[in-house]
Amino acid sequence: MTHRSDLHAGRFALGTRLRLRASAGARRLGMRVAAVLICSGAWLAWPGPVLASSGAVEATAAPAAGRLDETPRMAILSAFAPELELLRARLRDARVHTVQGVDFFTGQLEGRPVVLALSGISMVNAAMNTQLLFDRFRVTHLIFSGIAGGVNPELHIGDVSVPERWGQYLEVVMMREIAPGQYRAPASKGEFDFPPYGMMQPRAVRVRQAEGAGIQEKFWFEVDPQMLAVARSVQAVPLRGCDRQDRCLDKRPRLVVGGSGVSGQAFVDNADFRRYAFRTFRANVLDMESAACAQVAWRAGVPFIAFRSLSDLAGGGPGENEMNAFLHIAADNAAQVLLAFLRAWRD
């Protein structure tokens, strides 16, 4: 059984406080309790380890602070459960550690020590849980595996994109409208490297590396060159073109290494914005997590790469968004490329 001592302790403390008599002090306490309930709700609703595992999974009580073990591990993140399904099924000697409501699975994948976890969907969850991962494990490399919306019109559903750099397309200035359809950013915001989309002017983020010499402005966060080179070497990976009901894609999926990827806090299903993202950033794909993970990894000096398979065309298709129809094909294709990457990796 997964150990959740911190959560149980929090519930016990909450129940004790609710039994206090109603006084002025208790009413003030009740306000604090309400805040705890609101904040805790997000984690109580967080999905647990619902995926099948290769054999029994040993649960380990997590200490209040510090690393859970000292084994150097490659860390693998996915945003939500279906993206991690194939990798969890291949994990050997699995143990689960639960920290702040997040389950971290350690074990062996393709003969390598790894730790797997769900980042959660969107940028804040991804950044927060990437840092939690770095705090609790000895992470040598960070890998993201999952689905994405296709932006490059030359790519198709089921293709796997491995960008060489990631940026945040929704790090923007919302500009003042100075005339109908005309916008201007404050002069204090300086110069911009990219054209705007309406009132939204993309800009770099101000960042500082852990061992760096000061604050800098940075839009692109590059993946690790050695990891990218290994990804280029696994072009023969067999990718799925049909789902479990034998419904097949029009084109055979392929692996594309290089180019750009962008991330933001929006699910994009808009053909015009899709065209803008490709034209402006030369992006192959867009998603909701990779650039956040790349930035946290850059700050910590941890090599990073992301494998993203197209589940949809981000609004560029002829009908309804395709994600629900092709989610499992895309998730499995990204995971298959990651597994081939692990087999090809040499320390």
Question: What do you see in this structure?
Answer:
Residues 74-343 form the Nucleoside phosphorylase domain. One of its GO terms (biological process) is nucleoside metabolic process. GO terms for molecular function: catalytic activity. InterPro entries: Nucleoside_phosphorylase_d, Nucleoside_phosphorylase_sf. The longest helix has 22 residues, at 323-344. This protein starts with a helix and ends with a helix. The model is unreliable at 1-54 (pLDDT under 50). With 347 residues, the protein is α/β, with parallel strands linked by helices. The chain has helices at residues 5-18, 24-44, 81-90, 123-136, 225-232, 271-281, 290-300, 323-344, and strands at residues 58-60, 73-78, 92-99, 102-109, 112-118, 139-150, 160-162, 165-168, 172-174, 176-179, 182-184, 200-202, 205-207, 216-218, 221-222, 255-257, 260-263, 283-287, 304-312.
